[in-house]
Specification:
Elements: H1 8-17, H2 25-31, H3 34-38, H4 47-57, H5 61-75, E1 84-90, E2 117-124, E3 130-137
Antiparallel strand pairs: 1-2, 2-3
């Protein structure tokens, strides 16, 4: 696997440690000393640059997810995949009038006035390790 590009590790760090919207990622980088830790000026992690990078890899997200899962399964061979749990969740904050995914639909959280996206997630039953996910429109039925 190729070495991470500047910003890759920092975005993961942000999501694991102190998640914030991309709009504030530059301020987060400044406050967390990313320049001192990684030598990357915070303005190189602004929302436009990070957003363009995420857009560039979006067509490959399934391949990336598959490669990560296969790597985890091979490296940590004791993961029990005999039983997989399928789970759905749905909710979203913000205005996304032009989105194909963010829509009104059945709200599992009883928030009927909120738009949402539906996330399907498969995890191992024993360890709870995510194996794959799929993002669906907020009005998708879970009856399938």
């Amino acid at each position: 696997m190729a070495d991470p590009r500047p910003g890759d590790e920092q975005l993961v760090l942000n999501h694991l440690n102190d998640p914030c919207p991309l709009l504030y990622i530059e301020e987060w980088a400044e406050a967390r000393g990313i320049l001192e830790l990684y030598g990357i000026p915070p303005d190189k992690l602004n929302d436009d640059r990070v957003g363009r990078a995420l857009d560039a890899i979006a067509p490959y997200d399934n391949d990336i997810e598959e490669a990560i899962v296969l790597c985890v399964l091979s490296r940590f061979g004791k993961i029990d995949t005999d039983q997989i749990i399928w789970d759905l969740t749905s909710y979203f904050e913000g205005d996304y009038d032009e989105s194909e995914l963010i829509r009104l639909g059945y709200s599992r959280d009883q928030k009927k006035d909120k738009k949402q996206a539906v996330v399907e997630l498969n995890v191992t039953a024993k360890e709870g390790i995510p194996l794959c996910h799929r993002l669906l429109p907020g009005n998708a039925s879970d009856q399938k």
